[in-house]
Design brief:
This protein is an alpha/beta fold and 382 residues long. It has a single domain, classed as Metal-dependent hydrolases (TIM Barrel), CATH 3.20.20. 39% of the residues lie in helices and 8% in strands. A five-stranded parallel beta sheet has the order 4-5-6-7-8. Strand 1, helix 2 and strand 2 form a beta-alpha-beta unit. The longest helix is centred in the N-terminal third of the chain and has 21 residues.
Length: 382
């Protein structure tokens, strides 16, 4: 009996010794050499077992404040208007705001195609014609162009990030966000009661080197023209400082500061802006990824400033895209993919689980309040 026990113990000891030889607690000697998988081939599947709550239709009617579908500038996708309205009905989207409506006849074309056949379903914003920046009467021309756009049916004014980053005068100098030549235009927007939707700068990472420390490395490799790193561009902070000076100068004009206040990576800064500048509101087009990875901080911002946050998508108006955004806003689901993942970064997002009164404000009530300030096309001079 004793011999059998000793034999069993010995066999077990040999087995455990072998097991320990296979299951180690130190990195393999050749671990670094084995790291040869290309980033484009890395598609890990999460092992988390978490709740999944599909939201097929928004809980309240939605006004999407940031779209480019069938726009005048060719930024958005071309989708037959009747098909677009059908999708909107399916998703409970009341209206879409087409921001890039251009001016003049190109604006009229959008109005004729999208607004007139479908009353109440589409709103169009006008834009400045930067090709006239060197004209001595640029300010007057833009005010007249704006008045014409409002008479045609435009209900807002859109500024792309090209202001501050791309528009130059004949000397090659970049036009700053607070260029005084635009002051009469901002004032006219306030007089007419139309909001200015303004995109200044871009994700903070776009102003850093495209290297192994950049969290948008893959996106910037895909779109190198989105990089604003280098001495030929103003810094991120300089752009926002010029923006704030301009906002301060025009307190009677309402500015929709797009993309979660232009700095979703720093929501404390966004809160400061909202506190200091009562003529600003925000929407969150194409920033679900940034906001969803910091759900507690984002939820606090949305709760604290619930009267000044609006829904925006700034994505191809696919059914799945909207349903993903509805899930993010309405549920407490954790660790799911943002729309388009991992194009903006390799992380997941979690739901905000907003209460119904706040959700309804963000979905449509705040936008309706904003558009109610319109003072009538009769004010636009001829």
């Amino acid at each position: 009996m004793k011999k059998r026990f000793l034999l069993t113990f010995a066999v077990g000891s040999v087995f455990l010794a072998g097991l320990h030889a296979q299951i180690g607690y130190k990195s393999a000697a050749d671990a670094e050499q084995k790291k040869t998988l290309l980033l484009k081939d890395f598609h890990p599947k999460s092992m988390l077992h978490v709740k999944q709550t599909p939201v097929l239709r928004a809980k309240f009617p939605v006004i999407d404040m940031h779209q480019h579908v069938n726009d005048a500038r060719g930024i958005g996708d071309r989708i037959p208007p009747a098909e677009m309205v059908q999708r909107m009905d399916q998703l409970n989207i009341k209206s879409m705001v087409i921001l890039t409506g251009g001016w003049g006849e190109q604006l009229q074309k959008v109005m004729d195609e999208m607004v007139k056949p479908y009353p109440g379903r589409f709103v169009v914003f006008a834009q400045p014609d930067w090709s006239k920046i060197d004209d001595s009467n640029f300010s007057d021309l833009m005010v007249k162009q704006l008045d014409d756009a409002v008479r045609r049916g435009a209900r807002g004014y859109k500024i792309l990030k090209e202001l501050g980053l791309g528009i130059k005068d004949k000397t090659g100098k970049l036009i700053t966000v607070d260029d005084p030549r635009m002051d009469p235009v901002w004032e006219e927007c306030g007089r007419l009661g139309i909001p200015v939707a303004i995109h200044i700068a871009d994700p903070e990472a776009f102003f850093h080197p495209i290297d192994g420390e950049n969290e948008r490395y893959e996106e910037l490799n895909e779109h190198p023209d989105w990089s604003f790193y280098g001495p030929q561009f103003p810094s991120f902070e300089e752009l926002l400082a010029a923006r704030n000076r301009m906002f301060t100068k025009h307190p009677h004009t309402t500015f929709i500061v797009l993309h979660a206040g232009n700095w979703p990576e720093n929501l404390s800064n966004v809160a400061e802006m909202l506190d200091r500048l009562p003529n600003t509101v925000i929407e969150f087009g194409a920033r679900e990824a940034e906001l969803g990875r910091q759900p507690r901080r984002a939820r606090k911002l949305f709760m604290d400033y619930q009267d000044r946050v609006m829904f925006g998508s700034d994505n191809t108006p696919d059914v799945d895209m909207y349903q993903n955004n509805f899930r993010w806003l309405e549920t407490d689901d954790e660790a799911f993919d943002y729309w388009g993942s991992p194009s903006q970064g390799r992380w997941t997002i979690s739901g905000l689980n907003l209460p119904d009164p706040v959700l309804e404000k963000i979905y449509h009530l705040n936008a309706e309040k904003l558009f109610s300030k319109f003072k009538g096309a009769s004010l636009a001079t001829k």
